[in-house]
Amino acid sequence: MVEAASLSWEHRYVKANSVKLHYVTQGSGKLLILLHGLFEFWYSWRHQLPYLSREFKVVVPDLRGYNDSDKPRNGYDLDTLSSDISALIHTLGYEKAHVVGHDWGGAIAWHLARSFPNKVDKLAILSTPQRWQTVLTQGISQSWGHLQRNWHVLALQTPGIPQWLIKENLSSLLTYLFQQQVVRKSAFTQANTDLYQAALQKPGVIPALLQHARHCLSLNDWINSWFSPSRLSNNPIESPTLIMWGEDDNLVPATGLFSPDSSRQNITSRSIADCGHWIQQEAPNSVNRELLTFLS
After folding, report:
1. Which domains does the chain carry?
2. Ranges of the chain whose pLDDT falls below 50
């Protein structure tokens, strides 16, 4: 199905916020943007592109630093990354868009909805806490095992970590992420993993990945938020919001997905049983149905 649908995909480039972004698009109508997470690229949404393009113009960018997008030395903080997506919406000729994000892409989507509320129609967040620092906080307070499962993100926080160390161990890292941490094992073939590895091995991607990861789980931000709890407060999201997660996600537990005031926000929550962190790839049919129902 994915192979046949890929014949209708179009690969394009656009200048947004002073960087050239590569994106894949399909369909027509209201704009729907899908944002990938750490260690991924547009391909992580391969199951959603053909399905959601029946109702929307689906645009799936490679985030700055990934795959075929520009790889500048700076600009991997949430302010800049959300500005990239805001500029993308504008450059494509739209005033606003539905935005769906997974993992780090979900964090960008959260930030976009707070920073540019007029740009986001509906918001869907998959397997993403409102603040990544809560993942570390809960790991310390609840389970060292949780920290051990997120060793890959914690290791990337180490200043001066040699890029060659990541390059030499990239295959093992991807095996850990896309096989050992997957509940529905059939979701990832070796060919899938090889595509992710090839995208990450492109020149300039590993340095960019390091910056993404360090902004994703900044130890400095976590220490500040630990001693200043008020820093965790978030402005309410104005957009109708869907939060989805896999019930067996070992990387981001459901307890980190919600803010204290989420019950007062316009939030719909959905969980998927027998599913891990890579929710849109492990349970594509369930995710597709939930997204289409919510966005329509």
Report:
1. 2-295 (3.40.50.1820)
2. 139-141, 144, 226, 229-233, 260
